[in-house]
UniProtKB/TrEMBL annotation, chain B:
Bilayer-spanning residue ranges: 33-55, 148-171, 208-227, 239-264, 270-290, 297-317, 323-344
Protein name: ABC transporter permease
Superkingdom of this protein's organism: Bacteria
Localisation per UniProt entry: Cell membrane
Keyword list, A-Z: Cell membrane, Membrane, Transmembrane, Transmembrane helix
Domain ABC-2 type transporter transmembrane: 34-343
Species name: Agromyces allii
Membrane topology: Multi-pass membrane protein
Length: 294, 367
């Protein structure tokens, strides 16, 4: 498990990180969400040791993270980049070897991973000859080729087409399934919502909320219900203890004062006939994010 | 995937640095520009050696027609190739035909007993070859022919200048390439800045050294093939010193090139930011060419770390350096190199992740 305790970073006068604390559990896909300049990249750089913090600690399984531990981390920086003139396989093998892998094992790892990421046909092409999407896949291969014990990815999905997003999602889920803690940041809240076990929301250098997706919903979301009937649902406005949030003909989204009020509304809908569906509306991550950050 | 079992141990510093050096060398050898420019340089060296022998080697004896009776004067004179003729008329015929450059005839009125006849101008070469000089002794004979000294100075100067500049700017480009393509952040999360810098400096030093060695071999081969072995005897010791000084001096320059280049983020800015280091490389080249006959300037040059790789071997060649002088100068160079590497590493480490505007030197040093 990776833990951050009170990590603080200053850039001159500006406090970029203010006592940032959160944890990434073993085998948990943890989404790291925040606006531009909220401190995501700074936090990730501090975890990887490419930037020094001004205070606080980063622990791996309870012990402070040292240079040797970090060699076993996998990292995909926000600023993408590989050697443009090196070939895909050559470059991936080189990075694995920098992490200490023997040539043969490094090559086997690289080939397997590139195949998995859909770059099996392009191993002998130079990075600069690849499309942006494929360069991105190569970048992910670079972060994974040494089979890291901790994975940190800064915006791994930006610039990927929907097919590539799916491939990368599957690869990340596989990595997490082996027990590796995975932390990744993203602006694409829908992907984070679909993929993540845990969430960390950062705003203005402070952790605004963190926990499992479910816990955050319970904590920050207001429960809403969605009703669809064949006829007009206008009667819903007159139901006691119900406030309609959105309305369109036979479709309505409403909040209920109590379970009893909700049940009464459902009974009413059934007795009026023409009920198509009645369901709880899941609070979207975007809603939680907005609420938490404000 | 049970990955924990076959996961390797943390790599050692030496392993990381040699991997980085290896990549640096492989990529350079793959570059067509590098291969072509090296080929051109080799050809230039070979050409200058061969041409030097063609133009410098015209010490053939001058042909002179010798009328019987004067042959005793001409025989045994290495500068003259006597062509015996029966009388002066036959000699004049040869002279007009351009077969000979002069005629030597016996003369009773001349104190030397001969007269030299030319065609349309005084055959001064022949005359001076036959001239009689009083014996001369020099109290302080010049050990080395000044022309030869000039060529040796030029040789040391240009080899140092070219190699240092070529591989210095190669290092600078390699540093900025990693910064510009952002690959440096992945590298820094994998290896230390020190290993990265060491690998770069070592890789490019090996290349520079290899090139110098290749130049030396080609020059030697050329000299041997054209029969100029004479030159080598006196040069040997100074060439060995040159190689030793170059090896250390280049590491110093490489560290400075890497450090200054790390302060910028775009290839276009390399030129301006490395100018001070480039000046340090160019200065000894011009100094040694203009002042190779000035003992004071050479003496100073041979101790200043940046010009010592050229200055000290030059003094060793001229025979003006005591035996201990190269050793003292080498110690100074070594100390400066260590300081340059330490400061360079600091600047390098502090500047690598600062992209965008050029990093100020003060910030780079403070971190």
């Amino acid at each position: 498990m990776l833990e951050l305790h009170d990590v603080t970073k200053r850039y001159g006068e500006r406090l970029a990180l203010d006592h940032v604390s959160f944890a990434v559990g073993d085998g948990r896909l943890t989404g790291f969400v925040g606006g531009n300049g909220a401190g995501k990249t700074t936090t990730m750089r501090i975890i990887l040791g490419v930037l020094a913090s001004d205070g606080g600690t980063v622990l791996l399984d309870g012990a402070p993270v040292g240079a040797a531990d970090r060699r076993r981390f996998g990292y995909m920086p926000e600023e993408r980049g590989l050697y443009p003139k090196m070939k895909v396989l050559e470059q991936t093998v080189y990075l694995a070897r920098l992490h200490g892998w023997a040539p043969a094992a490094a090559r086997a790892n690289a080939l397997e991973l590139l195949e998995r990421l859909g770059l099996g046909e392009r191993t002998d092409d130079t990075i600069e000859s690849l499309s942006l999407g494929n360069q991105q896949r190569a970048q992910i291969a670079a972060a994974l080729v040494h089979r890291p014990e901790m994975l940190v990815l800064d915006e791994p999905f930006s610039g990927l087409d929907p097919m590539a997003v799916e491939t990368v999602q599957a690869v990340l889920a596989d990595v997490a399934a082996t027990g590796v803690p995975v932390l990744f940041s993203s602006h694409q809240l829908d992907i984070v919502e679909r993929l993540c076990d845990d969430l960390v929301i950062i705003a203005g250098g402070r952790i605004a909320a963190s926990g499992t997706g479910e816990a955050l919903r319970t904590q920050h979301g207001t429960e809403r219900w969605e009703l669809l009937v064949a006829g007009d649902a206008g009667w819903l406005r007159q139901q006691p203890g119900i406030s309609v949030v959105e309305f369109d003909g036979g479709w309505a989204v409403f909040e209920a004062e109590s379970d009893a009020a909700r049940e009464a509304a459902l009974t009413e809908a059934v007795s009026r006939g023409g009920l198509v569906s009645f369901s709880r509306e899941r609070t979207s991550l975007a809603q939680i994010f907005k609420e938490v950050v404000q | 995937m049970s990955t924990t079992l076959d996961r390797p141990a943390t790599p050692r510093f030496v392993d990381s640095a040699s991997l980085i050096a290896g990549r640096e060398i492989t990529m350079r050898l793959r570059s067509k520009t590098f291969l072509i420019s090296t080929g051109v340089l080799m050809l230039a060296v070979l050409a200058s050696v061969v041409l030097g022998s063609l133009f410098g080697g015209q010490n053939e004896a001058t042909k002179v027609a010798v009328v019987a009776g004067a042959s005793s004067v001409v025989d045994g004179n290495a500068a003259l190739d006597p062509v015996p003729v029966d009388d002066q008329a036959a000699g004049e015929q040869l002279l007009r035909d351009g077969e000979v450059d002069a005629i030597v005839v016996p003369s009773t009125s001349d104190p030397l007993g001969i007269t030299v006849i030319g065609l349309d101008q005084t055959p001064s070469g022949v005359a001076s070859a036959l001239a009689v000089y009083p014996s001369v002794e020099l109290l302080e004979p010049a050990a080395v022919d000044p022309m030869l000294a000039y060529f040796v100075a030029f040789g040391f100067g240009i080899v140092f200048f070219m190699s240092a500049l070529t591989f210095g700017s190669t290092i600078a480009q390699s540093v900025v390439e990693e910064k510009q393509t952002r690959v440096v952040e992945i590298l820094l999360s994998t290896v230390s800045a020190r290993a990265l810098l060491t690998g770069k400096v070592v890789g490019n030093s090996v290349l520079a050294f290899g090139q110098i060695l290749a130049i030396a071999v080609i020059a030697l081969l050329g000299l041997m093939l054209t029969g100029q072995k004479v030159l080598l005897g006196g040069l040997g010791t100074s060439v060995v010193w040159f190689i030793v000084f170059f090896a250390i001096g280049f590491v110093m320059l490489a560290a400075l090139f890497a450090a200054t280049a790390a302060m910028v983020s775009r290839a276009e800015d390399i030129g301006s930011v490395t100018t001070p280091v480039t000046m340090l490389v160019m200065l000894p080249y011009f100094l040694v060419i203009f002042f190779n006959d000035n003992p004071t300037v050479l003496a100073i040059m041979s101790y200043v770390p940046f010009s010592a790789p050229v200055g000290m071997p030059m003094r060793v060649f001229l025979g003006t350096a005591e035996w201990w002088e190269p050793i003292v100068s080498l110690a100074i160079l070594l100390a400066t190199t260590i300081a340059a590497v330490l400061i360079g590493e600091r600047i390098y480490r502090n500047s690598l992740l600062k992209t965008g505007a050029r990093v100020k030197l003060g910030d780079a040093l403070r971190g």
